[in-house]
Specification:
Order of helices and strands: HHEHEHEHHEEEEHHH
Oligomer: single chain
CATH topology of the largest domain: Glutaredoxin
Radius of gyration: 24 Å
CATH superfamily of the largest domain: Glutaredoxin
Distance between the termini: 77 Å
Strand content: 15-25%
């Protein structure tokens, strides 16, 4: 009799467990938190939600650098220099009618130093700052304009030129105007909306 009761208990527990797996497997956990790239980017960088930034991963960046046309911004939102850069870049892309800017948040990949991040550094090695040890380092913020897999423009000026100054001090009216003119001229040269 004990074996029959034990068998029934096991069967009931097994049935409950299977039911829970089925229920949880069909439940859409992401349904409530669906946020578009532009909204997410707006929240992270405190800019308007009507923006053209699209999140990409390291593997996507490698593909763009090797084969495609586009503008890639590399940075991370906890970096004040990236936030200032985005503030002015957003104005430039809006003024120039840029339809999409790829955004690569490199912080996690750089910390892990994974193979895709190393591939990006290798691909950009001619443009990157070299440490005294000869090692190249991808600094942020960085902006790259690519045309059919050819790097046409690379900018990491504010990632290197800090000298213990704050971004609000660095970005004088003159620097902002120079930055806007420079990026706008490159955008006119390279039609990235193709």
């Amino acid at each position: 009799m004990k074996q029959i009761i034990r068998g029934i208990i096991y069967f009931v527990l097994f049935s409950i467990l299977i039911g829970a797996f089925i229920y949880l497997g069909e439940k859409d956990f992401n349904n409530e938190v669906q946020v578009s790239d532009s909204e997410r980017f707006a929240q992270e960088y405190n800019i308007e939600s009507n923006n053209v930034f699209k999140y990409v991963y390291a593997k996507d960046v490698i593909d763009i650098l090797n084969n495609k046309t586009g503008m890639i911004f590399m940075g991370f939102s906890s970096n004040d220099w990236s936030k200032y850069y985005i503030k002015y870049l957003q104005e430039i892309v809006k003024e120039n009618g840029v339809k999409q800017v790829y955004y690569y948040d490199l912080q996690k990949d750089r910390t892990k130093n994974n193979k895709y991040y190393r591939q990006i550094e290798n691909r950009l090695s001619d443009y990157l700052y070299k440490l005294d040890t000869g090692v190249v380092r991808l600094s942020t913020p960085s902006l790259i304009i690519v045309k059919n897999g050819n790097i046409k423009y690379f900018d990491d000026e504010t990632s290197i030129e800090r000298n213990n100054i704050s971004p609000d001090y660095y970005w004088s009216d003159e620097k902002v105007e120079s930055f806007k003119n420079r990026i706008s001229s490159y955008l006119k040269e390279v039609n990235i909306n193709e």
